[in-house]
Write a structure and sequence with these properties.
- The protein has 370 residues and is of the alpha/beta class.
- It is 42% helix and 16% strand.
- The strands form 4 sheets. The chain has a 7-stranded mixed β-sheet, sandwiched between helices.
- A hairpin with a 2-residue loop joins strand 12 and strand 13.
- The chain binds 5-S-methyl-1-O-phosphono-5-thio-D-ribulose.
- 5-S-methyl-1-O-phosphono-5-thio-D-ribulose binds next to helix 2 and strand 9.
Length: 370
């Protein structure tokens, strides 16, 4: 299975996903701004992977803040010294959060790291101790993501029928996470159980995450895959025996409305029309319990050039107006279930998501304690 990122010698090494499947290249990041740029340019992408990269970026930001101080100042943990450091840390957090606004895993991870740094300051840790602790926390976010995906895979495989012909959109695989994947994690687990006959991967215009990444990733693991262009999804449902749709998510509101890659909404509508169950697979960190419904989810709009050209070649008049939302919101009523590391949530989602929230708050998995 492919690796998305590595933390090596205090640097974040990212697999450059913009180059796949043509070449496998790695980017070495030793500043938080370089990680922010990688997130913005989709060199690293997919909600959970963005979250983990942002956690490492926060660890880098703290190190940059500490390194900018005179050595003798580093032992000073007075209230005012801590306040200054935390103010710079908050600035780095805000910059990272702005890199991509829809995937809530990003601001979830930067909040976890920021809150931890505040608790460390209160506990009297010096900047170097804080740096070590923040690195450890980022590694924990990374490692637990893989565990969560494996759990999601086990729960999700149960809803996958025998002889499954699955349609998926975008890439919610190992590449979009720290390993295994969410939607593709479920597919991987179901494949291990011998249930998967075929996976249809939507190409996913404009940036082709489905054909470049999902197809590549599944072929690497010898999972049968057929790529179609986005406008072939409904017809494939009608003619190819598709019996389940599984996609990932970037942000899920408290009522189950789900933001995911642009085109997901259309896929969900087509699935409904064909009586095919439509599932979302996502970890608890993709839920935004503060939003009552999907209308409150911020939708990222990207550069017009992504639509006016195709893989570098001009595909539209240079002056044509373009609408380029990177995500859409699928209403909860089109979703049969949401597969999480805590189990499969079923409608009514207000209730099942409320129960999930209680469990997550109780666990306090990422709360730093002295
Ligand atoms: O723009 P991207 O490639 O970051 O969009 C990714 C998606 O929409 C994924 O489906 C989502 O982040 C879930 S990834 C496990």
């Amino acid at each position: 299975m492919v690796e998305t990122m590595k933390w090596e010698d205090g640097k974040l090494i990212l697999l450059d996903q913009t180059k796949l499947p043509v070449t496998v290249e790695w980017i070495s990041c030793d500043t938080y701004r370089r990680v922010g740029e990688a997130i913005q340019k989709l060199e690293v992408r997919g909600a959970p992977a963005i979250g983990a990269a942002a956690a490492f970026a926060m660890a880098l930001a703290w190190r940059q803040i500490a390194n900018a101080e005179q050595p003798e100042a580093l032992s000073v943990c007075s209230k005012s010294a801590n306040k200054k450091r935390l103010a710079s840390f908050a600035k780095a957090r805000a910059e990272l959060d702005a890199a991509r606004p829809t995937a809530v895993n990003l601001s979830w991870a930067t909040k976890v790291m920021y809150d931890a740094a505040c608790s460390m300051a209160e506990a009297g840790l010096d900047p170097q101790q804080t740096e070590t602790e923040l690195e450890t926390l980022a590694v924990k976010i990374y490692e637990l993501d893989i565990d969560k995906n494996k759990k999601m895979g086990e729960y999700g495989a149960e809803v996958v029928p025998e002889n499954a012909v699955i349609l998926t959109h975008c890439n919610a695989g190992a590449l979009a996470t720290c390993g295994w994947g969410t939607a593709l994690g479920v597919i991987r687990s179901a494949h291990q159980q011998g249930k998967v006959k075929m996976v249809y991967s939507d190409e996913t215009r404009p940036l082709l995450q489905g054909s470049r990444l999902t197809a590549w990733e599944l072929l690497e693991d010898n999972i049968p895959v057929t790529t179609i262009t986005d406008n072939m999804a409904a017809w494939s449902m009608k003619t190819k025996g598709i019996n389940i749709v599984i996609t990932g998510a970037d942000r899920i509101a408290a009522n189950g409305d789900t933001a995911n890659k642009i085109g997901t909404y259309g896929v969900a509508l087509a699935a409904k029309a064909h009586g095919i169950p439509f599932y979302i697979a996502a970890p608890a960190s993709t839920f935004d319990f503060s939003l009552t419904d999907g209308s409150q989810i911020p939708i990222e709009e990207r550069r017009a050039e992504e639509v006016r050209s195709f893989q570098g070649a001009v595909s539209a008049p240079p002056n044509v107006k373009v609408f380029n939302p990177a995500f859409d919101v699928t209403p909860a009523k089109l979703i049969a279930g949401i597969i999480t590391e805590y189990g499969v949530l079923r409608p009514p989602f207000e209730r099942s998501i409320g129960e999930l929230k209680t469990k997550v708050l109780k666990e306090e998995l990422f709360t730093w304690k002295a």
